[in-house]
Write a structure and sequence with these properties.
The complex is a heterotrimer of chains A (228), B (282) and C (411).
Chain A (H helix, E strand, L loop, with lengths): L1 E10 L2 E11 L4 E5 L6 H9 L6 E6 L2 E2 L5 H6 L2 E4 L11 H8 L7 H7 L1 H5 L10 H14 L4 E5 L7 H16 L3 E5 L3 H7 L2 E6 L2 E6 L1 H6 L1 H8 L2
Parallel strand pairs in A: 3-8, 3-9, 6-7, 7-8
Antiparallel strand pairs in A: 1-2, 1-4, 4-5, 9-10
Helix pairs in contact in A: 3-6, 4-6
Chain B lengths: L1 H30 L6 H19 L2 H23 L7 H23 L15 E4 L2 E4 H23 L1 H11 L1 H6 L4 H27 L5 H16 L4 H21 L6 H13 L8
Antiparallel strand pairs in B: 1-2
Chain C lengths: L1 H19 L5 E7 L6 H17 L3 E2 L2 E9 L4 H13 L5 E4 L3 H14 L3 E3 L16 E3 L10 H9 L5 E7 L2 H16 L3 E8 L7 H4 L8 E5 L4 H11 L8 E4 L5 H4 L10 E4 L8 H14 L5 H19 L7 H9 L2 E2 L7 E3 L5 E13 L2 E13 L7 H6 L16
Parallel strand pairs in C: 1-3, 1-4, 4-5, 5-6, 7-8, 7-9, 9-10, 10-11
Antiparallel strand pairs in C: 2-3, 11-14, 12-13, 13-14, 14-15
The chains are: A alpha/beta (228), B mainly alpha (282), C alpha/beta (411).
């Protein structure tokens, strides 16, 4: 479904991704792990067109998308849950959802059913929400675009364990429905629990490409690659 | 009676300023740039509207000409020039200043230095009377029409999906794009709308203020005062700022004619000192 | 016979050659604003001048004219630069035009020092021909600002019977001097000025100032000049003042160019000036007819100023045989000159180089479809000193915002 091959991405003159390749097949949950500053967020930004790669290709359902503008990429069916949630602060919860809406199986009722808490807060402005509510809203907002592929950039970041479990529950539900997911995480247990396949990024390169369970079991590799 | 007339006048002038200030604010919202050429739209709208209305004997055609022309001017400025310098604030501001000077010279060349006044259409001329209160019908028309435009703008921005997308693009343009909102096209549309509002104000203002070389700078000064007082990018702030400047200008001129500029520049300085982002700024 | 014919041909040839050698031209420099806000005024003035030159086939005192036109953009600095250029590189014999009083004041020193005869066509600043006048400067066009205010103050009190008036005028020299002259004559005739309101020059919107006009007066004296007068008169009506308080003032308000764009709001306004296109005399009738034929519009006082100034210069040059070599003699020739046949009536200079002329009281009337300034009263041969002794008059300060003081204001 998504194929990233040998991309090089820069911020100005600083070379961040050095030939990264990865694949997400339909219905698969892929996780990308790695310490801070290793290029995980840049990978997501390269895919959605915020920071297009200078070399290499990104294709979605067989067609190249690395030259498209971000809104065009999103409209092909890629839903983004960005790092830091980036909720629109001056919009209400419901407006945050409506601006993203495109026809499909996900609508307001559907996302409210997935996150009942959002329904209660529907009239509140984005800046009035707690961190956990913002994260739920960010996921729900991405779902409103009715994507075939969901990109999540550290959805557990800064959340209390109870809320991490809530997010994991929702992702599990999506996975069960056959949604393809690319999950960037630092929360290893959560990622391993969900993912079919894992990549680890270090200094802009893929240094692990294999089973999440095997990585979880290999204490030495874990310590070397992830510092845990 | 003295006060009623002054307040009614201040409101009429304030509502005219609202059309200009809201356009400036809208453009700032989507472009993050203070468009110094905004007064030029007023000037071009007023000249074209006056010319077309005089030639066709139709006030409505005058309004249409002023609005459409400034809208197109806005589209060209935004897509062919400003968008190329996305994110480079200084370059963009200098570019708008260039347009201000260019359009001023162009207007002088096309329309000459003679001040022009658009004749008030017959249906709107004369006065309305209520007891001892006499007020020009045309000024009442300006107040009502501008209030309608303000209401329409408010409803579109606050109650529709399109309005929410505009506000989303103002909050975080990159994220809005990431969700599939065509932000570049939205920016162009808002830029055109902002320019057209100033053009509309030019045509509407021409019968009472006239149009002459230098009107662009005068209007820009007042519009900047409006958005600085109200808070750049804030809709309610623009409304409050417009009414404030309109009233302060009228009352100041009537009570202390020698100090009329101080009447709104002094409060403006005070507001900036206490609230650097304006009354409603975030 | 053959020889005779040949001789005749030779004589004709020689005579022809002599006739063809043109006498050296009179060089006239004309300075006025031809761009900017005052461009229409400058153009009207220039039109009047050109009409006269067209009638004389570009000759003054039977000498060809080199007529050099310069644009001063209504700026004293630019005017001075242009005048230096006209004197130093074009070697003009005399200067004319000049609409901006500030420009006229700025050039006084230079024209006296260089002895350049200067015939002012419009600039009205009182002191150009009062305190500190320049020796080489005479004023033909409009006269001093307060010159047509004095008789109007007299008329408002004695003929219109007003006792209390409010004034509203441009806050610059012309407004100060005109209102000052009006106030002095009006109050000496028994009237009282009870409020003086000043508006910034070129005000777009007069509503805040209109709101300040007290309601317990007999009339409002408005001295607003230029194209904004259109807006002033219209707004005066729109705010309901016209129904209760008559509006009177200097003739700028109902200038023939403005009248074209005015409607019912102007009918009945009583104003004063030294000219009206509706003046009934043979010279004016001819002038209006020729001006309309050439420029397709009705002349205003600026057009007359250009025409009458050209006529005046022509007659003055004739008195010195077309020679301006002795410049002081040329000024003296003008000081003794009387011209009876101008569109605006008989002209002569007073002891201070300023024009003595008729001042007309006019009322706007509708004749057919057009509005005109019908003359309803004439004050003949009015000087800038009105009925006062010149020496005594000049001991007072020049009229200003605060002179004469407003002793009845607020009462």
């Amino acid at each position: 479904m998504l194929e990233v091959s040998d991309i090089h991405t820069f911020y100005g003159s600083s070379h961040v991704l050095h030939g990264v390749s990865l694949r997400v097949a339909a219905g698969q949950v892929i996780t990308v792990l790695g310490r801070n500053g290793m290029g995980k967020t840049t990978l997501i930004r390269s895919i959605v067109g915020f920071t297009p790669p200078r070399r290499g290709t990104v294709s979605f359902r067989g067609a190249p998308i690395h030259g498209l503008r971000p809104f065009a990429i999103a409209r092909l069916g890629i839903g983004l849950v960005p790092q830091g949630r980036r909720i629109f602060p001056s919009l209400s919860v419901q407006e945050n959802l409506r601006v993203a809406a495109r026809p499909g199986r996900w609508d307001l009722d559907g996302v409210y059913a997935l996150f009942p808490r959002l329904h209660e807060r529907a009239a509140n402005r984005g800046h009035q929400l707690s961190g956990g509510e913002q994260q739920m809203l960010a996921i729900a907002r991405a779902l409103m675009t009715n994507p075939d592929l969901l990109l999540l950039d550290e959805p557990s970041e800064g959340l209390a364990p109870l809320l991490v479990a809530e997010v994991a529950r929702a992702l599990g539900q999506l996975r069960a429905q056959g949604m393809a997911i690319l999950l960037v995480e630092q929360n290893l247990p959560m990622a391993v629990g969900l993912a079919d396949h894992a990549y680890v990024l270090s200094k802009g390169r893929v240094v692990y490409d294999g089973s999440p369970a095997a990585l979880w079991a290999d204490e030495a590799r874990k310590a070397e690659l992830l510092g845990v | 009676m003295f006060w009623i007339t002054l307040v009614a006048n201040g409101v009429a002038f304030g509502m005219l300023l609202f059309l200009i200030g809201s356009g400036l604010s809208l453009i700032f919202g989507v472009m993050r740039v203070v468009n110094l050429a905004h007064g030029s739209y007023y000037l071009i709208g007023a000249y074209l509207g006056t010319g077309v209305a005089a030639a066709t004997n139709s006030f409505l055609l005058g309004i249409a000409a002023g609005v459409v022309a400034t809208m197109l001017l806005g589209v060209v400025m935004q897509t062919a020039f400003l968008e190329r310098f996305g994110g480079q604030i200084l370059a963009q501001v200098l570019l708008t200043m260039g347009f201000l000077l260019l359009l001023a010279d162009l207007s002088l060349w096309v329309w000459g230095g003679t001040p022009q006044i658009l004749a008030i259409p017959d249906a709107l001329s004369g006065s309305v009377r209520a007891g001892g209160f006499v007020f020009p019908r045309y000024r009442l028309f300006i107040s009502l029409l501008s209030a309608l435009v303000a209401l329409a703008l408010y409803l579109v921005l606050e109650r529709t999906r399109l309005g929410a997308q505009v506000r989303a693009a103002v909050d975080d343009p990159e994220m809005a794009q990431g969700l599939g909102v065509n932000v570049p096209r939205l920016s162009t549309a808002m830029f055109a709308l902002g320019a057209a509002l100033a053009g509309l104000a030019g045509v509407l203002g021409s019968p009472i203020l006239g149009v002459f070389p230098g009107a662009d700078l005068e209007i820009l000064t007042l519009a900047l005062a409006v958005v600085i007082i109200g808070g750049l990018g804030s809709f309610p702030g623009t409304l409050v700022g417009s009414l404030f400047v309109g009233l302060a200008d009228n009352i100041g001129k009537a009570l202390f004619p020698e100090l009329s500029y101080i009447a709104f520049f002094a409060p403006m300085a005070l507001i900036l000192a206490v609230r650097p982002r304006g009354l409603f700024g975030r | 016979m053959r020889w005779a014919l040949l001789g005749l041909a030779l004589v004709a040839l020689i005579a022809g050659t002599v006739g063809a050698a043109p006498p050296s031209p009179v060089v006239v420099g004309f300075v006025a604003p031809l761009t900017g806000v005052f461009a229409p005024t400058g153009q009207d003035l220039l039109n009047g001048f050109n009409l006269y030159l067209a009638k004389t086939q570009q000759r003054l005192a039977n000498r060809p004219v080199r007529f050099i036109v310069e644009d001063d953009q209504f700026s004293p600095e630019v005017a001075l630069t242009k005048i230096r250029k006209l004197h130093e590189s074009d070697r003009v014999h005399l200067l004319t035009g000049i609409i901006n009083s500030a420009a006229a004041y700025a050039m006084r020193g230079y024209i006296d020092q260089q002895a350049i005869p200067t015939v002012i066509a419009v600039a009205g600043g009182d002191d150009l021909t009062q305190r500190g006048r320049a020796r080489f400067l005479v004023r033909i066009g409009w006269g001093a600002s307060s010159q047509f205010a004095h008789p109007f103050g007299d008329y408002a009190a004695r003929q219109l019977g007003y006792r209390r008036v409010a004034t509203l005028a441009d806050d610059f020299a012309f407004g100060h001097e005109w209102i000052g002259g009006f106030q002095r004559a009006f109050e000496e005739a028994g009237g009282r000025v009870v409020a003086k309101i000043w508006t910034p020059l070129g005000s777009a919107d007069f509503s805040p100032y209109l709101a300040r006009i007290p309601r317990d007066v007999d009339a409002v004296v408005g001295a607003v000049v230029g194209p904004v007068a259109l807006r002033f008169v219209r707004q005066y009506q729109e705010f309901g003042l016209r129904d209760r308080l008559p509006l009177i003032g200097p003739g700028h308000m109902t200038d023939e160019v403005n009248l074209l764009q005015m409607g019912p709001e102007a009918v009945g306004l009583v104003t004063t000036l030294h000219y009206s296109a509706a003046l009934e005399n043979q010279w004016n009738r001819t002038f209006v007819q020729e001006y309309r034929a050439r420029f397709n519009k009705i002349p205003n006082a600026y057009a007359d100023a250009g025409y009458s100034t050209a006529l005046w210069i022509d007659r003055a040059l004739q008195r010195v045989g077309g020679q301006v070599t002795d410049r002081a003699a040329f000024i003296r020739a003008m000081e003794g000159l009387v011209v009876a046949d101008t569109p605006r009536g008989p002209l002569r200079l007073d002891s201070h180089g300023n024009i003595v002329q008729n001042i007309y009281i006019r009322r706007v009337e509708r004749v057919g479809t057009a509005l005109q300034n019908s003359v309803i009263h004439t004050y003949p041969n009015v000087s800038q000193f009105w009925t006062y002794n010149a020496a005594e008059f000049l001991r007072n300060p020049v009229y200003s915002r605060d002179y004469p003081p407003c002793q009845f204001c607020g009462r």
